[in-house]
Design a protein that fits this description.
heterodimer; A: Butyryl-CoA Dehydrogenase, subunit A, domain 2; Butyryl-CoA Dehydrogenase, subunit A, domain 3; four-stranded antiparallel beta sheet; globular; B: alpha+beta; Butyryl-CoA Dehydrogenase, subunit A, domain 2; four-stranded mixed beta sheet
């Protein structure tokens, strides 16, 4: 076992860190307050190669792998959870799905653009009545000979209103239950019958666009199908193994932001004649934050390492995501306590992190779903 | 906060005094030697503590459920083993006769139980029927003038020291699950009845826990409690009350552990000052006291509802769940506060820690409590 980060990894971590501090930190507080999304930041990250880590060179990537990618992703999330999200929306989600299940044409047309940020990506699973129970989705694509006729409504879709290309899941044969689900690569902006609506009312992640995608008799080309009809559920689950991992590393980044801020504050703030960091209670809170964040990071790195080795990592990803999400909420909650009223004030950076952290307990499968997955392995129902 | 009545306060003081004088001095010894405290229980009978809630005409003190619960709590504060003996005797061995028995059954059995002539218990758990009481395999087959019981019950409190037992058995072999079960009053002197080997336990080592074995044990028909098939329903009602008593056991254990922590942190000096002046200890003690107080309110409230004849199933499950998990946290941290001394038998908090664990299991595990609570809140789906 080797816990040492290579020179190369440390260098990439530093590049991401510097970018976050230089390009995102100065604007993030104001933008979050105004719910402002800057596509140019995504493109800059793309140009720096942040999204190319999981993509081979022939499609514009760098091929440095998942571990390197989560290391970078964590550093961006440490400053802004909203801007940690594009890693998922560009390549870890759509990019990897296209790479594994797309035709050569899909790969050539879409992947390089997702890597550079020229195209924005998204994926659409969730529906108003289909959350944790993915197979209960109602969206339906009917084979009309020359095209698929797609109807349905997707909600809580990250990047909905800005995405050029979306991985859309819909039933092609509802009688087959989850084996009748299929996946499509849909050019959302160029397809008649596709409308999007922004959702502005979120607790956190205010710089990250979220919306609904509605399909009303949308004609999807036959070539948009990924894999075979009926592969959709399988594709979706394999995609979630990847996007869940990105979610976990962002949770670690947000969690790390808590001790970062709280340590600084505890060393400055004085009460009862001494620095609050000299009180055992605060020391205990900081120690717990540090320990749990570090443990979450190790779980994430290991799941990423397995991915790079080509070893199935569903259990490890769920373990990492569950623990990191819970840690992020706990650590940021403690940070708010340490900051007192300042922590409750949006002038200080900790309340935003608490709001952002809550998302990790929900997206890419709730903490309850992670526990279901984990226990199904533990009980030997899955291997 | 529920205001204790004069009577309840008097019982609390009496039991506290008794506990300090008669129980605490032997608590460590009976734990160490796994020795049942016959003498102490006899004295409790003389003080009329073995029938606190039952009417005076049946030999009880007629002092209500809450007074009884306070007695369980005060005993547990010094000795969990003595406390659970009282709890099993009253809530499991006596309550069903009071609640479901005929006048004759009350005269014949409740009176000696309540007046401390002998101890009682209940036989519910079986090797294959723990949380799932519906899986009971002990059978009671109708015969001339009574029933023939066959089967065995395990982990039964007061099994070898009690004289009468409430026993759950299947009377309708065709019925599935929780149907077709009935309860009987079985005397230890009945032919075909015997208690098995004494269990070696983690905690509550001074209490009596053994197997009950029924081999063609004949029980006269006047000893059935209620009607055939009523067993599961009356069992559930019994457990609702039993849970409050296990909650009180947990509460007393937690309070007893805190009682030991306070003088220690005031006296023990480290880094030139009493450890109670360190925040880490202060926070621990504050959490302990808060959770204990919350447990006490939940338990007294549930006991109060039961006394008033109002529904209390969900409330007793909540009280037991919260108090037993509190007892585990408090006793764990009590050892922590006492450090190396806490780990030593001599300082007794390790006994409280071992005793506390039972409260998360007996009368329904914490998991079962959560099921009961969730059902109470969500309703039937």
């Amino acid at each position: 076992m080797d816990f040492e980060m290579t020179e190369e990894l440390l260098e990439m971590k530093k590049v991401a860190r510097d970018f976050a501090e230089k390009e995102i930190a100065p604007i993030v507080e104001k933008d979050e307050a105004e719910h402002k999304f800057r596509p140019e930041i995504v493109r800059k990250m793309g140009e720096l190669g942040f999204f190319g880590g999981v993509i081979p060179e022939q499609y514009g990537g760098t091929g440095v792998g998942m571990l390197a990618t989560v290391v970078m992703n964590e550093e961006i999330a440490r400053v802004s959870a909203s801007y940690g999200l594009p890693f998922n929306m560009q390549t870890i989600g759509p990019g990897l799905v296209l790479l594994a299940w797309g035709t050569e044409e899909h790969k050539k047309n879409y992947i390089p653009k997702l890597v550079t940020g020229e195209f924005m990506g998204c994926f659409a699973i969730t529906e108003p009545n289909s959350g944790s129970d993915v197979a209960s989705m109602k969206s339906l694509a009917v084979d009309k000979g020359d095209y698929w006729l797609l109807n349905g409504a997707k909600t809580w879709i990250s990047n909905a209103q800005v995405a050029d290309i979306g991985i859309v899941y819909a039933y092609t044969d509802p009688s087959q239950k989850h084996k009748g689900m299929s996946a499509f690569a849909v050019e959302l902006k160029n397809t008649k019958g596709v409308t999007t609506r922004a959702i502005e009312t979120k607790l956190g992640l205010h710089c990250a666009p979220t919306g609904e995608v509605i399909f009303e008799d949308a004609k999807i080309p036959k070539s948009a199908l990924l894999g075979k009809p009926g592969d959709g559920f399988k594709i979706c689950m394999s995609m979630l193994d990847n996007t869940r991992l990105s979610c976990a590393c962002r949770a670690v980044g947000v969690a790390q932001g808590a001790p970062d801020a709280a340590v600084k504050y505890a060393n400055e703030r004085e009460q009862f004649g001494k620095k609050i960091g000299e009180y055992e209670m605060i020391q205990s809170q900081l120690a717990e934050m540090f320990v749990e964040t570090q443990a979450a990071r190790m779980l994430v790195y290991r799941a990423a390492y397995l991915k790079d080795k080509g070893i199935k990592n569903t259990l490890e990803v769920s373990t990492a995501k569950y623990f990191a999400a819970e840690t992020a909420v706990k650590a940021t909650n403690e940070a708010v306590k340490i900051f007192g009223s300042y922590g409750f004030s949006s002038e200080y950076p900790v309340e935003r992190r608490l709001r952002d952290a809550k998302s990790f307990q929900i997206v890419e499968g709730t903490s309850n779903i992670q526990k279901m997955i984990i226990s199904s392995f533990v009980l030997g129902q899955r291997k | 906060m529920i205001q204790l009545t004069e009577e309840q306060r008097l019982i609390k003081d009496t039991v506290r005094e008794f506990a300090l004088k008669e129980v605490e001095p032997i608590a460590r010894k009976i734990d160490k030697l796994s020795e049942f405290p016959y003498e102490t229980i006899k004295k409790m009978g003389e003080l009329n503590l073995l029938g606190i809630p039952w009417p005076q005409k049946y030999g009880g003190a007629e002092a209500g459920e809450l007074s009884y619960i306070i007695a369980v709590e005060e005993l547990a504060r010094v000795c969990g083993s003595t406390s659970i003996t009282l709890a099993a005797h009253t809530s499991l061995g006596s309550f069903p006769i009071y609640a479901f028995g005929t006048e004759e059954q009350k005269k014949k059995y409740l009176t000696p139980l309540a007046s401390g002539k002998y101890l009682g218990g209940m036989g519910l758990t079986e090797p294959e029927a723990g949380s799932d009481a519906g899986a009971t395999r002990t059978t009671a087959v109708k015969t001339n003038g009574g029933y023939i019981i066959n089967g065995s019950k395990i982990f039964i409190t007061n099994a070898s020291v009690g004289k009468s037992f409430i026993v759950l058995a299947k009377t309708d072999m065709k019925a599935k699950g929780s149907y077709g079960l009935s309860t009987f009053i079985v005397e230890s002197s009945f032919k075909g009845f015997k208690s098995g080997k004494k269990e070696d336990k983690l905690g509550l080592r001074g209490s009596d826990t053994c197997e009950l074995i029924f081999e063609d044990c004949f029980v006269p028909e006047e000893n059935i409690l209620g009607k055939e098939g009523d067993g599961f329903k009356s069992l559930m009602k019994t457990l609702d009350g039993g849970r409050i008593s296990i909650g009180a056991l947990a509460l007393g254990i937690a309070q007893g552990a805190l009682d030991k922590v306070i003088p220690y942190v005031r006296e023990r000096q480290q880094f030139g000052k009493p450890i109670g002046s360190f925040q880490a200890i202060q926070m621990m003690v504050a959490d302990m006291a808060t959770e204990i107080e919350a447990s006490r309110h939940l338990i007294y409230h549930a006991a109060h509802l039961m006394e008033e004849g109002k529904p209390f199933s969900k409330e007793s499950a909540m009280a037991k769940l919260f108090a037993s998990e509190t007892a585990m946290r408090v006793t764990k941290n009590a050892i922590q506060a006492l450090g190396g001394y806490g780990y030593m038998n001599e300082y007794q908090v390790e006994r409280y820690y071992r005793d506390a664990k039972l409260t998360e299991i007996g009368e329904g595990t914490s998991e079962v409590q959560r099921i009961v609570i969730a059902r109470g809140i969500i309703g039937k789906l």
